[in-house]
Every structure is written in C-alpha cells, then in structure tokens.
Task: structure prediction
Amino acid sequence: MAKNTSKSKTLPIYIINGPNLNLLGAREPSIYGHTTLGEIEKLCAARAKSHGLSAVFLQSNKEGELVEFLQEARTAASGVIINAAGYTHTSVAILDALQMLPLPVIEVHLSNPARREDFRHLSYVAKAATGTIAGLGVNSYLLAIDAVAAVLAGPKGTRK
Ligand code: DQA
Result:
C-alpha cells in the first residue's frame, strides 16, 4: 500500500495583543517588566516550536482590529491566546467575537489584575476563555502556549 506522505499541519496559534502592549519595555516597567513585545514574540515562537506548533503574533491599539483578528482566527487558527489589555475590562465586542470561536482560548496578563484596581477585576475576556493565566510576566504567555498545546492534545471535543 502506498505510504501517505501528505503532512497534516496544525493551524497556528493566534497570539493577540491589545492596546499599549506595543510599548512594553518602556511602559510602566515596575508593573509590566522590561521585556519588549518583540522579545516576547521570539520567546513565544520558540515555545510553540517546542510543541511542534507555530504562532502568529498580532498587536493592535484598535478594538475593531482586534475583533477582526478574532474573526480571522475562526478558520485560520488552532487556538487563541489573548491579552486584550485595557479592553479586557470594557469590550463586549471582543467578548462577542471570542464567543464565536470553536477553539481553545487562553486569556493572559503580565500583571495580576485581581491584585490591582477594582476596575480591573471585571474581565469580559474571561467569560469566553477556556482559562486565564495572569501575574507571571512573560511566563504568562509561555504557559498559555503550554495550555493550548495541552488542550489540543487532549480528548476530542475539549474546547472550553
Ligand atoms: C494587562 C492588564 C490590564 O489591566 C491593563 O489594562 C493592560 C495590561 C496585563 O497584561 O497585565 O494593559 O492586560
């Protein structure tokens, strides 16, 4: 019997970053650390590769663009990692887009919003997320990749 040589490639993980995260490194380093978003992107690519996965790394300061990234992820991604930054606490539009995703969704934050101001305690993203990883700096992103890999490797039908 002929050997099937076609490789079935898993779709990339979309790692989506919201407003002001483009200024990481310079932005309130006592809260968010000194690592730039570009450096986080490289670390994420390596971590995804260690799981045999790839990552598409995206950032926007605009709510509508973040919604468009999520709409694209519906058919182009195997999972979504999202740090919606300030929109975490305000955006019904991002929640609606997340609720359409038949994919693992991990919410990440560099800081731990639960330890900060009251207005950061509400997360619209959390209402549609498989899970949340917060407060671990850059490691929040890397552990989120591990989490997506674990969900994808898990029993069929595991989504949220
Ligand atoms: C953040 C936490 C949010 O409350 C804040 O608005 C951000 C960054 C974090 O990664 O810790 O912009 O999402």
User: Anything to note?
Assistant: Residues 138-153 form the longest helix (16 residues). The chain has one domain: 13-153. The mean pLDDT is 93.
